[in-house]
Design a protein that fits this description.
Elements (H helix, E strand, L loop, with lengths): L11 H8 L18 E4 L8 E5 L4 E4 L3 E4 L5 E2 L9 E4 L1 E2 L8 E4 L5 E2 L3 E6 L4 E3 L3 E3 L12 E3 L15 E4 L8 E6 L4 E3 L3 E3 L12 E3 L7 H16 L1 E6 L6 E4 L4 E9 L8 H16 L7 E7 L3 E5 L12 H10 L11 H19 L1 H4 L2 E9 L10 H12 L5 H6 L4 E8 L5 H4 L11 E4 L5 H6 L23 H8 L3 E8 L2 E11 L2 E4 L13 E4 L7 E9 L22 E5 L18 H6 L8 H8 L9 E5 L2 E5 L8 H7 L7
Parallel strand pairs: 21-22, 21-24, 24-25, 25-26
Antiparallel strand pairs: 1-2, 2-4, 3-6, 4-5, 7-9, 8-10, 10-12, 11-13, 14-15, 15-17, 16-18, 19-20, 22-23, 27-28, 27-30, 28-29, 29-32, 30-31, 31-32, 33-34
Helix pairs in contact: 3-4, 5-7
Bound molecules: 2-acetamido-2-deoxy-beta-D-glucopyranose (NAG) (5 copies).
One 2-acetamido-2-deoxy-beta-D-glucopyranose binds next to loops.
Length: 660
């Protein structure tokens, strides 16, 4: 180890020549090792390189998480002789803060996998988890246990989260409770909660974090998902009887989404690609709602790279979702400057907002909602604190000239979410920047890697399960069967018995009762009992068939006298099932053109015509299409040639109303 460049004064000139002036000051690996773990370097031993310590799950690097190679060849956070770098077992915050009850076992400290149980004193009843386990991310499983008794207060006892202290014991309307964290913990979430008129506490319960506490991907997708969903829709759902489909009514107003990704040296090089993929996933997810947001997307270090300019959305030329995705995919980070200017991001967003306001006018601008989504570790070293700029942004959105009461009511028009990502996060600088009503807005993650999956889960599958064509696009881990179902959730396997021989076909679910397949799968004389459809929906794989209907114009020998032996026009058939299949994220219908479902899936606002859908879907004379084939044990995608079939017939045979 330790390949420092040592230059004697004699060799110095030569050395200078070879190393272009950087000679004297690479860092060394001396004393850098970590007991029980290892480390990675972002730029070997060059200046600006970040050394990141890694420990096995359930452990964290101590005393420091990272070290930075400085200009003069010394490490920031120099190793200390008496506290050698090692992997320490993860600790969870102290649960013995619970009132009116007992925690067992009583311990000074609680470590990963330690189990605690909770019991209330007699006369008190428990809400929350009676048993909690200390998890590898430094949090307790379940929810805060609270012992309380009927007190006649307007709000229920809000309890005390592990590691915290609470000031305030009166739970009447407009009363507040304040939280702080003990010892070396810090608070994430609201410092204060107010008992509201509806008997609920404002905001979400805060939590006490250690520097080694992280949010899991699942927590983030649930919390961020429910929050962003609120921004995306009023969740007024009508019950559509046709396919159990939820129809959303979007708010009258415009949604502007501003995304910024920190690509300064404090976040690793390879992460930029992952961040791009995550943003693309997010944009696709958002587009499964009927709202059509405008996007501003920037990457930043000391400079700002504006990948998508929101002002383009206000020009005549409407920016399409695919265009955004292509621009994002093509974006390459060139020579990066060192330094991070977080304030520049907010200043740019503020400028864009000011221009939008000028363009659309004050009254229209009032109807605009703004959602900021930032990915950074918060280690800015240029441009100063963004707090004053954020205050200006709030003024602009809240319309500060009006009275306090009204400013309050406009808080829902601005959300600032921060995904704090990294091994060394500057929570104190970042947390004051988040804003917005309701759910959690500050997320703490170790790596950007999980982000794409996190975003893929943010939209409640239950809620959009009626939406046709929605599927997972990335490689899914798990058995090939499960992976295939998630990737092609409309897929059905069909077996037809004819005179003792069985024939296999693949079909697509078009609604919970109907499967679309080829007419040539059937032979004259087949009866419904000959046909079996397999779809694993958790209700039994094999589905009984009520009826099958080949297209009336399908005639394989229809052109025999013209010399065409096998004629495959109208080669479609519908299979009607006895019982409907259970729709879920892995069992979902494919989109049929000229239907409202497809209109929604294409984000065509309101009712669209066949023509509009065709223009979007079949832009070119030749379209690349694919079909599925089953070769045990996998499902494969293949490229065929295909002719368009009688869409109207499909729709009318299923007695579907559709807009033509
Ligand atoms: C190297 O630079 C840092 C700050 O730039 C300074 O704190 C440190 O004392 C310097 N170390 C040496 C050995 O000169
Ligand atoms: C708690 O965890 C620590 C560290 O793993 C372990 O040494 C200790 O025995 C555990 N205590 C209990 C009560 O399980
Ligand atoms: C819609 O469905 C929900 C749950 O399925 C049900 O509670 C509600 O009453 C339904 N509303 C109407 C208008 O049918
Ligand atoms: C929706 O916004 C338009 C202008 O964008 C306005 O004319 C209309 O009155 C609004 N509708 C409602 C229900 O607020
Ligand atoms: C509102 O905020 C803007 C921007 O910070 C500021 O210029 C203006 O003076 C403020 N107006 C009032 C009445 O506070």
């Amino acid at each position: 180890m330790g390949f420092a460049v040592h230059c004697s004064w004699l060799a110095a000139l030569l050395c200078l020549h070879f190393f272009g002036g950087q000679v004297c000051c690479d860092c060394t690996e001396e004393n850098m090792e970590i007991e029980g773990g290892h480390y990675t370097l972002t730029k070997q031993l060059q200046k600006g390189s970040l050394l990141i310590y890694q420990c096995p799950e359930g452990y964290y690097p101590y005393p420091v998480m990272t070290r930075l190679c400085q200009h003069n060849g010394s490490w920031r956070m120099a190793p200390r002789r008496f506290t050698p770098q090692r992997c320490r077992v993860v600790e969870c915050p102290d649960p013995n803060v619970m009132e009116y009850g007992e925690v067992s076992p009583p311990q000074d400290k609680y470590f990963v996998n330690n189990v605690t149980t909770y019991e209330c004193y007699s006369g008190y009843t428990m809400r929350g988890s009676a048993r909690r386990v200390c998890l590898p991310n430094g949090k307790w499983s379940g929810s805060t246990p609270i012992c309380s008794r009927e007190s006649g207060h307007d709000c229920a006892d809000p309890g005390i989260p592990a590691g915290a202290s609470r000031a305030g014991n009166i739970f009447g309307i407009d009363e507040t409770v304040k939280y702080s964290c003990n010892s070396n913990l810090f608070l994430v979430g609201p410092i204060e909660r107010v008992c509201l008129e509806n008997g609920q506490w404002s905001g979400k319960e805060p939590a006490c974090y250690y520097k080694h506490t992280y949010d899991t991907s699942l927590e983030v997708s649930q919390a961020f998902g429910s929050s962003i969903r609120e921004s995306l829709t009023t969740l007024e759902s009508l019950n559509d009887t046709q396919a159990g489909k939820t129809i959303r009514i979007s708010k009258n107003g415009t949604l502007n989404i501003y995304i910024a990704v920190d690509i300064s040296e404090s976040i690793e090089e390879a992460d930029v690609k992952k961040a791009k993929d995550a943003i693309i996933t997010l944009i696709k997810k958002i587009s499964s709602f009927t709202v059509d947001p405008n996007y501003e997307i920037v990457f930043f270090s000391s400079d700002l790279y504006e990948v998508v300019n929101i002002l383009d959305f206000f020009d005549e030329k409407k920016v399409e979702r695919n265009t955004i995705i292509n621009i994002l995919n093509d974006f390459q980070v060139g020579q990066k400057n060192t330094g991070t200017d977080l304030n520049l991001v907010f200043k740019t967003f503020l400028e864009r907002m000011a221009i939008i306001k000028l363009q659309v006018g004050k009254e229209q601008f009032k109807e605009h909602r703004h959602v900021f989504i930032l990915f950074t570790d918060g280690a800015y070293n240029m441009g100063g604190s963004p707090e004053p700029t954020v205050a200006q942004i709030k003024n602009m959105v809240y319309m500060n000239h009006t009275v306090e009461q009204e400013a309050q009511s406009r808080e829902e028009y601005l959300d600032i979410y921060i995904f704090a990502i990294g091994n060394e996060i500057f929570d104190d600088d970042l947390q004051p920047l988040v804003t917005g009503l309701g759910g959690k807005h500050y997320f703490r993650m170790k790596e950007i890697t999980e982000l794409q999956e996190t975003f893929d889960q943010i939209i409640d599958e239950e809620e959009v399960k009626g939406l046709c064509g929605l599927h997972k696009e990335y490689e899914i881990v798990g058995s090939p069967q499960v992976a295939a179902r998630k990737k092609y959730p409309w897929w059905a396997f069909i077996t037809i018995q004819t005179e003792g021989r069985s024939k296999n076909c693949i079909g697509s679910l078009v609604n919970p009762y109907f499967v679309l397949t080829a007419a040539h799968c059937f032979t004259f004389g087949n009866v419904p009992e000959d046909v079996k459809v397999e779809i694993e929906d958790g209700q039994g794989r094999v589905k009984k068939v009520k009826n099958f209907i080949p297209h009336p114009k399908y005639k394989i020998n229809g052109k025999e006298n013209e010399g065409v032996l096998e004629f495959y026009d109208y080669d479609v058939a519908l299979i009607q099932l006895e019982e409907y299949v259970q729709i879920s994220s892995s069992v979902r219908p494919i989109c049929i053109p000229c239907t409202q479902e497809t209109s929604d899936a294409l984000q065509l606002v309101g009712v669209s015509t066949c023509k509009q859908q065709e223009e979007l879907l079949l832009k070119n004379d030749l379209e690349r299409v694919s079909f599925l084939t089953k070769r045990e044990p996998r499902l494969m995608k293949k490229m065929p040639t295909l002719s368009l079939v009688g869409i109207e017939w499909i729709a009318s045979s299923m007695h579907w109303r559709h807009q033509a």
